[in-house]
Amino acid sequence: MAQVTFKNNPITLLGNEVKVGDKAPDFTVLANDLSEVTLASTSGKVRLISVVPSIDTGVCDQQTRRFNEEAAGLPNVEILTISVDLPFAQKRWCAAAGIENVQTLSDHRDLSFGQAFGVAIQELRLLTRAVFVVDSSDTVTYAEYVAEATNHPDYEAALEAAKAAK
After folding, report:
1. Element (H or E) spanning 163, and its range?
2. What is the tens place of the pLDDT at every residue in 16-58?
3. Residue 45 forms beta bridges with which residues?
4. The whole model's pTM is what?
5. What is the chain's Cα-based Rg?
6. Are 67 and 54 in contact (CB under 8 A)?
7. DSSP assignment of 80-145, as one string?
8. Catalytic hit among 46, 60, 120, 165
9. Residue 60 appears among annotated catalytic residues
10. Which of 50, 91, 114, 133 is the most exposed place for a label (fewest CB within 10 A)?
Protein backbone atom coordinates (compact mmCIF):
# COMPACT_ATOMS: atom_id res chain seq x y z
CA MET A 1 0.00 0.00 0.00
CA ALA A 2 1.13 3.56 -0.63
CA GLN A 3 2.66 5.24 2.41
CA VAL A 4 0.88 8.56 2.95
CA THR A 5 0.81 11.20 5.68
CA PHE A 6 -1.76 13.86 6.47
CA LYS A 7 -0.27 16.93 8.15
CA ASN A 8 2.87 14.81 8.65
CA ASN A 9 0.98 12.10 10.56
CA PRO A 10 0.86 8.57 9.08
CA ILE A 11 -2.61 7.52 7.93
CA THR A 12 -4.21 4.19 7.07
CA LEU A 13 -5.56 3.82 3.55
CA LEU A 14 -8.43 1.38 2.99
CA GLY A 15 -8.69 -0.75 -0.12
CA ASN A 16 -6.05 -1.81 -2.61
CA GLU A 17 -3.41 0.34 -4.23
CA VAL A 18 -4.03 0.79 -7.95
CA LYS A 19 -0.97 0.59 -10.19
CA VAL A 20 -0.17 1.46 -13.78
CA GLY A 21 -1.24 -1.43 -16.01
CA ASP A 22 -4.09 -2.51 -13.72
CA LYS A 23 -7.65 -2.66 -14.95
CA ALA A 24 -9.34 0.24 -13.17
CA PRO A 25 -11.76 -1.09 -10.54
CA ASP A 26 -15.41 -0.10 -10.90
CA PHE A 27 -17.01 2.25 -8.37
CA THR A 28 -20.22 4.16 -7.76
CA VAL A 29 -20.21 7.85 -6.82
CA LEU A 30 -22.85 10.58 -6.95
CA ALA A 31 -23.03 13.48 -9.38
CA ASN A 32 -24.21 16.89 -8.19
CA ASP A 33 -27.79 15.97 -9.17
CA LEU A 34 -27.54 12.78 -7.03
CA SER A 35 -27.44 10.49 -10.07
CA GLU A 36 -25.02 7.56 -9.87
CA VAL A 37 -21.80 7.64 -11.88
CA THR A 38 -19.70 4.51 -12.32
CA LEU A 39 -16.46 3.74 -14.09
CA ALA A 40 -18.54 1.84 -16.66
CA SER A 41 -20.76 4.88 -17.30
CA THR A 42 -17.68 6.89 -18.30
CA SER A 43 -16.10 4.09 -20.35
CA GLY A 44 -14.87 4.64 -23.88
CA LYS A 45 -12.94 7.83 -23.15
CA VAL A 46 -9.79 8.84 -21.32
CA ARG A 47 -10.44 9.95 -17.76
CA LEU A 48 -8.19 12.04 -15.54
CA ILE A 49 -9.41 11.40 -11.99
CA SER A 50 -8.36 14.08 -9.53
CA VAL A 51 -8.91 12.97 -5.93
CA VAL A 52 -9.08 15.58 -3.16
CA PRO A 53 -9.81 15.43 0.60
CA SER A 54 -12.26 18.38 0.50
CA ILE A 55 -13.07 20.82 -2.28
CA ASP A 56 -13.42 23.62 0.32
CA THR A 57 -9.75 23.64 1.32
CA GLY A 58 -6.90 25.61 -0.22
CA VAL A 59 -4.87 22.95 -2.04
CA CYS A 60 -8.00 21.05 -3.16
CA ASP A 61 -9.49 24.30 -4.48
CA GLN A 62 -6.28 25.07 -6.39
CA GLN A 63 -6.00 21.52 -7.74
CA THR A 64 -9.56 21.55 -9.07
CA ARG A 65 -9.13 25.01 -10.61
CA ARG A 66 -5.86 23.95 -12.26
CA PHE A 67 -7.39 20.89 -13.92
CA ASN A 68 -10.42 22.98 -14.93
CA GLU A 69 -8.07 25.46 -16.66
CA GLU A 70 -6.05 22.69 -18.32
CA ALA A 71 -9.17 20.96 -19.68
CA ALA A 72 -9.16 23.10 -22.84
CA GLY A 73 -5.84 21.52 -23.80
CA LEU A 74 -7.25 18.02 -23.23
CA PRO A 75 -10.14 17.84 -25.73
CA ASN A 76 -10.58 14.06 -25.58
CA VAL A 77 -10.21 13.72 -21.81
CA GLU A 78 -12.96 13.78 -19.20
CA ILE A 79 -11.77 15.26 -15.92
CA LEU A 80 -13.44 13.94 -12.76
CA THR A 81 -12.77 15.39 -9.32
CA ILE A 82 -13.80 13.04 -6.52
CA SER A 83 -14.09 13.89 -2.82
CA VAL A 84 -16.36 12.93 0.08
CA ASP A 85 -17.94 16.38 0.10
CA LEU A 86 -21.71 16.28 -0.26
CA PRO A 87 -22.97 16.74 -3.84
CA PHE A 88 -24.77 19.92 -2.75
CA ALA A 89 -21.54 21.44 -1.42
CA GLN A 90 -19.69 20.47 -4.60
CA LYS A 91 -22.39 22.08 -6.76
CA ARG A 92 -22.31 25.28 -4.70
CA TRP A 93 -18.51 25.43 -4.82
CA CYS A 94 -18.41 24.87 -8.60
CA ALA A 95 -20.97 27.63 -9.17
CA ALA A 96 -19.04 30.07 -6.96
CA ALA A 97 -15.69 29.14 -8.56
CA GLY A 98 -16.92 29.12 -12.15
CA ILE A 99 -15.89 25.48 -12.66
CA GLU A 100 -17.39 24.16 -15.90
CA ASN A 101 -14.80 21.78 -17.39
CA VAL A 102 -14.48 19.35 -14.47
CA GLN A 103 -17.20 17.06 -13.17
CA THR A 104 -17.24 16.91 -9.36
CA LEU A 105 -18.40 13.63 -7.87
CA SER A 106 -19.15 12.65 -4.28
CA ASP A 107 -17.93 9.45 -2.62
CA HIS A 108 -19.69 10.41 0.62
CA ARG A 109 -22.39 7.74 0.53
CA ASP A 110 -20.36 4.51 0.28
CA LEU A 111 -16.63 5.34 -0.03
CA SER A 112 -16.94 3.06 -3.08
CA PHE A 113 -14.28 4.91 -5.08
CA GLY A 114 -12.06 5.41 -2.04
CA GLN A 115 -11.94 1.72 -1.24
CA ALA A 116 -11.73 0.58 -4.89
CA PHE A 117 -8.72 2.85 -5.55
CA GLY A 118 -7.13 2.57 -2.08
CA VAL A 119 -7.51 6.27 -1.21
CA ALA A 120 -10.02 6.18 1.69
CA ILE A 121 -8.41 7.49 4.90
CA GLN A 122 -9.59 5.28 7.75
CA GLU A 123 -8.90 7.82 10.51
CA LEU A 124 -10.65 10.78 8.86
CA ARG A 125 -13.27 9.33 6.47
CA LEU A 126 -11.78 11.51 3.74
CA LEU A 127 -9.99 10.62 0.53
CA THR A 128 -6.26 11.16 0.29
CA ARG A 129 -4.91 13.31 -2.53
CA ALA A 130 -4.21 11.31 -5.68
CA VAL A 131 -4.42 11.51 -9.46
CA PHE A 132 -5.19 8.66 -11.83
CA VAL A 133 -5.42 8.49 -15.61
CA VAL A 134 -7.61 5.72 -17.00
CA ASP A 135 -7.57 5.11 -20.75
CA SER A 136 -10.57 4.38 -22.97
CA SER A 137 -10.21 0.63 -22.36
CA ASP A 138 -10.29 1.16 -18.56
CA THR A 139 -6.59 0.51 -17.99
CA VAL A 140 -4.75 2.69 -15.48
CA THR A 141 -1.97 4.53 -17.33
CA TYR A 142 -0.95 6.89 -14.49
CA ALA A 143 -1.26 6.69 -10.71
CA GLU A 144 0.05 9.14 -8.13
CA TYR A 145 -0.67 8.82 -4.43
CA VAL A 146 0.64 12.13 -3.08
CA ALA A 147 2.97 11.23 -0.20
CA GLU A 148 1.80 14.14 2.00
CA ALA A 149 -1.93 14.61 1.46
CA THR A 150 -1.76 18.37 2.03
CA ASN A 151 0.74 18.84 -0.85
CA HIS A 152 -0.01 19.38 -4.54
CA PRO A 153 0.17 16.49 -7.02
CA ASP A 154 2.57 16.48 -9.97
CA TYR A 155 0.30 18.35 -12.38
CA GLU A 156 2.67 18.18 -15.35
CA ALA A 157 3.13 14.40 -15.12
CA ALA A 158 -0.62 13.83 -14.82
CA LEU A 159 -1.39 16.12 -17.76
CA GLU A 160 1.26 14.47 -19.94
CA ALA A 161 -0.15 11.04 -19.06
CA ALA A 162 -3.67 12.20 -19.97
CA LYS A 163 -2.45 13.57 -23.33
CA ALA A 164 -0.62 10.31 -24.08
CA ALA A 165 -3.52 8.00 -23.14
CA LYS A 166 -5.74 6.61 -25.88
Report:
1. helix 155-164
2. 999 999 999 999 999 999 999 999 999 999 999 999 999 999 9
3. none
4. 0.96
5. 14
6. no
7. EEEESS-HHHHHHHHHHHT--SSEEEE-TTT-HHHHHTT-EETTTTEEPPEEEEE-TTSBEEEEEE
8. 60
9. yes
10. 91
